[in-house]
Specification:
The complex is a heterodimer of chains A (101) and B (871). By secondary structure, chain A is mostly helical. Chain A is built from six helices and no strands. Helix content of chain B is 65%, strand content 0%. The termini of chain B are far apart.
């Protein structure tokens, strides 16, 4: 997945911001508690830790952010974590659809 | 009435009709069950009537769920004649709800739920409770809810509905307050859990939300409604069965992409069915801002589609290639981002197949787009040109078609231009400097390389790689003192890298030899003594091995200094060496090289004696390594005598028993040296004589027989048979090699893309170019072949750009890219590349010449210290 999303950074983040975000992220996901997330954070940090790395990521990175479009979409949503509540009418419609069967 | 048909006293063998009826019931085949049971009821009403009612109720429910309301009403009418009203109440309500013909339905449901009893099963209660909530009807009037139980139900429904409204409005505290009063035993307690889950979800309390949703009763409305939330939390696996459009639409709405549900489902389905381009088109056509850059959903999905080409299979990538490149060629890119991503992706993906000009043009086009979108950035552009230079500076394999034995660069001129531009844009780009240095070296432009090395040591005084390359350059220019200085500085920067002490010892030996030759014995001894600090006990490192160092010192002393000391040192070396012949060969070769003698003198007798009496396969491998170590020296004398001696030694050794490990070792040592393939074959056969099916050695034999890796008749079948045998024996190594060999047969050889004759135009430095001119040694075509040639031309004439590209990529392995390009130019009637003259076929050299130039891409981990430039 996009390293900026993993570290919750804007695309124009500088070295300091990247470092800060990395430290915060590993504090939240230490390797013994969440090794998978820790690994993802470390890989993301390596990709954008300094200016040359960020340029290299922009120019040459070839790692797809997921296995399928939906996998990418859910990973993106999971990382972004900005969800809007369903409007009441949409909620009613959804609940009725779920209670039909 | 007789109730004799209870299970306990039922006959052990059921009536076939009854058995059939029960099977239909179990399979929920209501209609069939009903038909059977109607007959059975006539036989035993008491026993089969409940089953008949069950079948009819099931049938009616099925009809209701399918929307067949009038049919369900007919069944219900029949049920009324056979079943008590209490049983039918739930069904009646369901039917009324479905047909919309029940004024006051909610009131009736509330009454029945409040009454409790056996009117509803627990799951029916849950379903009716859900129906009350999702109806979102105005609450029943005060008068219609006389009993406290009914009033409580109405209040709870209202609370849940208010909470849902509050969630939609983002008032999560208010929502929780609304359902706080719901008791655990309430009919709506699962709605309270759902509301809690929703509030936690929107407050980013993932664990809490996950726990709340996990507790929801299976099959309830809220459980189903929680699916999109659980998918987004990652607590529900992303399985195909959950991917319904409404669920995805809910997910899309939650993420702020209303209307994406259908698109997501379609793109996913197309992707899973391997129709990757169709998957892309779904989003391209359906989403206005796609493809895009950035961290939003269109951005990451664009990223996914353009990077997936590197991971999908060959066929898929081919269709990718065709689609996107035709978009670019036809100028049909949807937006600037799409054009930029196409260029970026396909420059990288097609880099082995694009000509240098095409690659440069496309890559610069990508950089222009990038600058247009993100502004100019010299450092980024410098890296980009560095990459282009690296690609154009790739070393191509030798081309038998042209009798080219030397490696060639893909486009030396293009690489140099790109790297110079990269350096110009960012003078601090070390890798561009290093790469340019390597390209100069590979193109044999030594004077420019030396100038660049001087610049690099000034610009990057603390860069290990730059210092190492500069030191090597000094060594080549025989500026050993300066070279040692650079190596020492590099060692101060990195004390672990084994290349540095190797380089120091190599340079020290050359400096010491220079001192000895000029009669400066003490400085020479001091230099060797300093090098002695870096010796290591590694038998195969003939540069830094203590016994080799002793022998080298002994030879130098014997030749130029104290002969007695030399003899003593040689004796010490002989004692420390693994076996006498090794020390003998080392000393003999060193002596010949240092003294530039044509013959080995009196050592010849000793060597011949060793070959006759002491030949062993295990020793042969060490001696071969030793000889190859010395023969790698540039400008060294011909080692024909030593080579001939080694062949005699190996011939004698091949008569001795040869263990499998020894044979393997010998093969690995001799494989890169075609002049010793015959000897390698002898040892391989020796091992095969002990086990003729040994897969590894059969593979070795095939590889040796095919000589330079050319394909041979039945190769795939033979490799497959070896693979089968290796798999049967569990020989992982042989299996891996066989797989690689099979894979190698399928993969076309890497293709050169720039004809050599272009170099002639760019050539401006007479002293630096060493690349030979194109050397066509191909025979004249026969008339039949000429006819075929004509057919090929006609075929090429009918191809479009994408097809041509594909044909170029998959052309016959023995057809060089230059020839293909010429054919295409002929067909198109455009300008032909200048046709080179056909010089005579050169005679093969007597023995392979030592490699003179630095490899353009040093790989520290695989470097053999014995291949270091010693002199």
């Amino acid at each position: 997945m996009n390293p900026y999303l993993i570290l919750n950074l804007p695309p124009d983040a500088d070295d300091q911001a990247v470092r800060r975000a990395y430290l915060e992220a590993i504090k939240l996901s230490p390797p013994d508690h969440d090794p998978k997330r820790f690994q993802a954070v470390s890989v993301a940090y390596e990709k954008i830790k300094d200016e040359p790395s960020r340029h290299r990521y922009t120019l040459f990175d070839r790692t797809p952010p997921g296995d399928s479009p939906l996998d990418v979409f859910f990973q993106w949503a999971h990382l972004r974590r900005q969800f809007q509540p369903l409007p009441l009418e949409a909620m009613k419609e959804w609940l009725r659809a779920c209670s039909k069967k | 009435m007789s109730n004799a048909s209870t299970p306990s006293d039922a006959a052990p063998v059921l009536d076939p009709l009854e058995k059939q009826a029960r099977e239909f019931l179990a399979a929920r085949r209501w209609r069939k069950a009903r038909e059977e049971l109607k007959v059975l009821v006539k036989k035993d009403r008491a026993k089969f009537l409940p089953l008949l009612i069950e079948a009819n109720v099931g049938l009616a429910r099925e009809m209701i769920s399918k929307g067949l309301v009038s049919e369900a009403q007919q069944v219900f009418a029949y049920l009324k004649t056979i079943a008590p009203p209490a049983i039918l109440k739930g069904l009646e309500l369901e039917l009324a709800a479905k047909s919309g013909s029940a004024p006051g339905l909610e009131t009736q449901v509330v009454e029945l739920l409040a009454a409790g009893g056996s009117t509803f099963t627990p799951s029916e209660k849950l379903r009716w409770a859900d129906q009350l909530v999702v109806k979102f009807a105005p609450p029943p009037a005060e008068a219609s809810t006389p009993s406290p139980a009914e009033a409580r139900i109405v209040a709870e429904v209202r609370a849940v509905q208010e909470a849902l409204g509050a969630i939609s409005a983002g008032n999560y505290d208010c929502a929780l307050d609304s359902v706080r009063a719901l008791a655990r035993d309430s009919l709506f307690s699962h709605w309270r859990l759902f509301i809690k889950g929703l509030a936690a979800f929107h407050r980013d309390e993932a664990d809490k939300a996950g726990r709340a949703f996990a507790e929801l009763p299976a099959g309830s409305g809220p459980m189903k409604a929680s699916e999109p939330y659980r998918l987004l939390l990652g607590t529900l696996p992303l399985a195909r069965h959950t991917l319904t459009e409404p669920v995805l639409e809910a997910v899309a709405r939650l993420t702020g992409h209303a209307g994406w549900g259908r698109l997501l489902l379609r793109t996913q389905t197309e992707w899973q069915d391997q129709r990757h381009i169709d998957a892309y088109k779904v989003l391209r056509d359906g989403v206005r801002g796609f493809p895009a850059e950035g961290l939003d959903a269109p951005g990451v999905l664009s990223d996914f589609f353009f990077k997936s080409i590197f991971t999908v299979g060959e066929n898929a990538s081919y269709s990718y290639e065709n689609y996107f490149l035709s978009l670019e060629e036809d100028k049909k890119a949807k937006n600037a981002v799409e054009l930029m991503l196409i260029r970026r992706t396909f420059c990288q993906f097609l880099r082995p197949h694009l000509s240098p000009d095409e690659l440069t043009c496309k890559w610069e086009g990508y950089l222009t787009s990038l600058r247009g979108m993100h502004g100019a950035n010299a450092r980024r552009d410098s890296l980009a040109y560095g990459w282009l230079g690296e690609v154009l500076g790739e070393v191509l394999p030798a081309q038998p078609f042209y009798h080219h034995k030397k490696p060639r660069l893909r486009s030396a001129t293009g690489a140099i231009d790109a790297l110079k531009k990269g350096i110009e844009l960012d003078p601090s780009n070390v890798s561009a400097h290093l790469r340019l240095c390597a390209v100069y070296g590979a193109a044999n432009r030594q004077s420019e390389r030396n100038r660049l090395l001087d610049t690099m040591t000034t610009l990057f005084p603390d860069n290990k790689e730059a210092l190492l390359i500069a030191g090597t350059g000094c060594q080549e220019r025989k500026a050993f003192v300066k070279g040692l200085e650079y190596f020492e500085r590099a060692r101060q920067l990195d004390r672990i890298d084994p290349r540095i002490p190797d380089a120091i010892v190599s340079c020290s030996i050359r400096l010491a030899r220079q001192h000895y030759e000029k009669g400066r014995l003490e400085p020479g001894r001091r230099v060797l003594a300093r090098a002695g600090d870096l010796l290591i006990e590694k038998p195969e490192n003939f540069l830094r091995n203590p016994w080799c160092h002793l022998a080298r010192r002994g030879v130098l002393e014997e030749l130029y200094g104290d002969a007695a000391l030399g003899a003593e040192l040689l004796q010490q070396a002989r004692t420390a060496s693994p076996f006498p012949a090794a020390c003998l060969l080392f000393a003999c070769t060193a002596r010949r090289i240092y003294s530039e003698e044509k013959t080995p003198g009196d050592l010849r007798t000793k060597l011949d004696a060793a070959a006759k009496t002491d030949a062993k396969p295990g020793h042969a491998a060490v001696l071969a390594r030793l000889l190859f170590f010395w023969s790698g020296i540039p400008d060294g004398p011909s080692l024909q005598f030593e080579e001939d001696w080694l062949r005699r030694y190996m011939k004698a050794a091949a008569r001795q028993p040869c263990a499998r490990a020894e044979g393997k070792n010998l093969f690995e040592v001799l494989k890169p040296h075609p002049t010793f393939h015959k000897q390698a074959e002898a040892f391989v056969k020796k091992v095969l004589s002990q086990d003729r099916l040994d897969p590894l050695f059969r593979l070795y034999q095939l590889l040796l027989e095919s000589r330079s890796g050319d394909r041979f008749y039945g190769a795939e079948f033979k490799f497959q048979s070896i693979l089968d045998e290796a798999t049967r024996r569990g020989d992982e190594e042989a299996a891996k090699l066989a797989r690689q060999a099979i894979e190698g047969l399928k993969t076309p050889q890497p293709l050169p893309v720039e004809p050599d004759w272009e170099d002639e135009e760019d050539y401006d430095g007479p002293e630096d170019w060493d690349e030979g001119k194109p050397n066509f040694g191909a025979p004249q075509l026969a008339p039949k072949e000429m006819a075929m040639f004509g057919e090929v031309l006609a075929l090429l004439g009918g191809l479009n750009e994408a097809e041509l590209r594909n044909h170029r990529k998959h052309r016959p392995p023995d057809m060089p890219a230059e020839v293909f390009d010429m054919l295409v130019s002929m067909v198109r009637g455009g300008k032909l590349p200048p046709l080179p003259k056909f010089p005579p076929v050169p005679k093969p050299p007597i023995r392979p010449l030592p490699q003179r130039s630095e490899p353009p891409r040093p790989q520290p981990e695989s470097r053999d210290p014995n291949q270091m430039d010693l002199f």
